[in-house]
Inverse folding.
């Protein structure tokens, strides 16, 4: 287990602790609202009273915090699983720089018993089959890894590895063949689903994220300039190293192509 792995897990543990404290605050507010409504139910009939709207907002907040806690718990479980040596390393991939970014445009007895939570995690991993996800893949020149869109073809419960395919033919591949990889869970980030719009994590202005560069199948570090617009559900982002005429252009990216920036990410 590397020091980087331990540091990432500690950060996630701290985030879990923060989420639980936030949940305690929200639940306290909910109980206070309940007591108020029980003692004076007629208050909701007064002009301008927003008690029910506030209660709905608190319930929504509690739900989002709970889902975030579950998501981070699953990530921690995944990291613990992949720290157990299994299988070979993923194949390598060529480097994509700022210019190459634009080129991509258009273009069973030995198996330990699983606890219920781990079985749920395994089922979730298996359910990603056929889905497009963000994946961290290695480059052929040994430089920094890059994040790209891939399609999950299989999840191996024994090796705890995903089999994925980059559906965009590689320029360096003979006959333009699609690249295939075997990757651990820590190298995979599921995209938000359009059907989960109401519960998807919100990224406020100033937040650094990982997002699909418009017109490409590659993801890069970006900063949120404008929060998600309700009518279009797009974020306004500024991508790192995307300078044009001395400034960073602002680009619209759909919410389901924006994910949290992984811990320790290096562009």
């Amino acid at each position: 287990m590397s020091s980087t792995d331990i540091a990432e897990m500690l950060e996630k543990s701290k985030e879990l602790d923060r989420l639980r404290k936030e949940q305690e605050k929200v639940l306290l507010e909910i109980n206070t609202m309940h007591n108020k409504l029980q003692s004076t139910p007629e208050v909701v009939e007064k002009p301008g009273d927003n008690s029910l709207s506030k209660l709905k907002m608190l319930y929504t907040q509690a739900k989002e915090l709970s889902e975030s806690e579950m998501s981070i718990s699953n990530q921690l479980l995944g990291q613990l699983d992949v720290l157990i040596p299994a299988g070979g390393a993923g194949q390598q991939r060529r480097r994509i720089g700022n210019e190459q970014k634009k080129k991509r445009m258009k273009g069973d007895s030995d198996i330990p018993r699983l606890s219920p939570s781990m079985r749920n995690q395994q089922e979730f991993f298996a359910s990603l089959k056929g889905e497009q996800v963000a994946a961290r893949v290695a480059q052929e020149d040994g430089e920094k890894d890059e994040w790209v869109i891939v399609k999950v073809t299989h999840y191996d419960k024994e090796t705890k590895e995903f089999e994925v395919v980059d559906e965009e033919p590689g320029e360096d591949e003979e006959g333009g063949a699609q690249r295939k990889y075997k990757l651990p869970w820590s190298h995979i980030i599921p995209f938000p689903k359009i059907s989960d719009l109401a519960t998807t994590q919100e990224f406020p202005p100033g937040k650094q994220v990982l997002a699909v560069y418009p017109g490409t199948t590659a993801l890069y570090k970006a900063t949120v300039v404008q929060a998600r617009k309700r009518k279009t559900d797009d974020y306004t982002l500024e991508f790192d190293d995307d300078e044009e005429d001395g400034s960073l252009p602002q680009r619209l990216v759909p919410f389901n192509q924006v994910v949290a920036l992984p811990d320790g990410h290096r562009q």
